[in-house]
UniProtKB/TrEMBL annotation:
Lineage: Bacteria, Bacillati, Actinomycetota, Nitriliruptoria, Euzebyales
Record-given protein name: Putative lyase
Residue ranges annotated for the VOC domain, each copy included: 5-134
Transferase listed as a keyword: yes
UniProt keyword terms in alphabetical order: Lyase, Methyltransferase, S-adenosyl-L-methionine, Transferase
InterPro entries from the UniProt entry: Glyas_Bleomycin-R_OHBP_Dase, Glyas_Fos-R_dOase_dom, Methyltransf_25, SAM-dependent_MTases_sf, VOC_core
Length: 347
């Protein structure tokens, strides 16, 4: 399917300099373009922080007399903090409200559920904006929201008849950063390794690397890459959940996209397997889709509390869960993800 990416929202404004000052100085947006070749044409393009879509206004573009654009949404992780920042900059922002079963209620949603808390403001020309809270660190997902898990492959090996979307031909950036920091040290196991990029990353940094995947075709490709790159890494075609049958232990376990394709009832088995294969004090690095990913096709969307509930107090400490991104072959920007650092207890 062809991508149709939203690139630009064109705003009608009466005074370009006034609009530019509002968006740059009061909202804190960056000026991407301000081009004026003559008195009859000027284009200003502004980027909201963290957004892949820009807004534009100017002279000689669009109809300046058309009605203002209404209700464009800006997604923020903490609506209370976002509103406070704008108010401190002199922006007239409405009070926060949230939708409850009884209807609209004042303030942010107490549970910080996604998509239910809002606040509004307008620019000097009447173009209105809506702040919407999504992905608050303390948030919980509504049971009715999609969790993903639809249309996952029934035959993982057949996925490699063509290049699957997770096989980007290089290691994921968050795991490269771990390698650069020296975190991939000693004996490293890569769960659901696919064509081996993360096991090969560990091998390139001098670690003793093993990759395991249920797809024999992926393992063949991983072995071919190791030979081509002159790297010493072992690749095993077997179910990663049964890797404890090897009777071996590892200092580091990597998981890039394995956890988020497991059904819920397989997670305790994963935890038991990790307890068996991780050396005391060893670290499990988990990179998975977060619950900020819209839709429900593909991998499950994972909330922070799902990670902590599974591991904390069950032989592991969840040391950190950081916002990250997962790249895919069909996207130009990374998918919102979590990178969790989980350490096995020493006793």
């Amino acid at each position: 399917m062809m991508d149709f990416r939203l690139e630009l929202v064109l705003l009608p404004v009466a005074d370009v300099d006034r609009a530019k000052a509002f968006y740059a100085e009061q909202l804190g947006w960056s000026v991407k373009v301000d081009h004026q070749p003559n008195d009859e044409f000027r284009v200003v393009q502004m980027d909201p922080p963290g957004s892949a879509c820009s807004v534009s206004f100017g002279v000689g573009i669009g109809d300046p007399d058309r009605d203002p654009v209404q209700g464009t949404h800006l997604v923020v992780a903490d609506i209370v903090a976002a509103r406070g920042l704008l108010v401190d900059r002199g922006v007239d922002v409405s009070e926060i409200r949230h939708m409850a079963k009884e209807g609209w209620r004042p303030g942010a949603d107490p549970d910080h559920r996604d998509y239910v808390s809002f606040a509004d403001f307008a620019d000097p020309d009447g173009n209105t904006w809506v702040l919407q809270e999504v992905g608050h660190p303390a948030g919980t997902r509504d049971a009715g929201q999609p969790r993903g898990g639809r249309q996952l492959p029934e035959d993982w090996d057949a996925s490699y008849d063509e290049t699957p979307p997770w096989d980007i031909g290089r290691a994921q950036a968050p795991l490269v950063a771990l390698a650069d920091s020296g975190a991939l040290d000693g004996r490293v196991l890569d769960l659901g390794c696919g064509t081996g990029e993360h096991a090969l990353l560990a091998a390139a940094f001098g670690s003793t690397a093993t990759g395991v995947d249920i797809a024999p075709t992926a393992i063949e490709q991983a072995r071919a890459k190791a030979l081509e790159r002159g790297l010493d890494a072992r690749f095993l075609a077997r179910d990663a959940l049964e890797i404890d049958d090897l009777g071996e232990t590892f200092d580091v376990v990597l998981d890039s996209g394995f956890f988020h394709v497991l059904p819920d009832d397989a997670r305790p088995r994963l935890r038991d397997m990790l307890r068996a294969v991780l050396s005391p004090g060893g670290t499990y690095y988990l990179l998975c889709f977060s619950d900020r990913v819209p839709g429900d096709d593909g991998p499950r969307r994972i909330a922070r509390n799902e990670i902590t509930d599974l591991f904390d107090g069950h032989g592991f400490d969840v040391v950190n869960i950081a916002e990250a991104g997962i790249e895919a072959t069909f996207l130009d920007v990374p998918v919102p993800a979590w990178l969790a650092t989980i350490v096995r207890h020493r006793t």
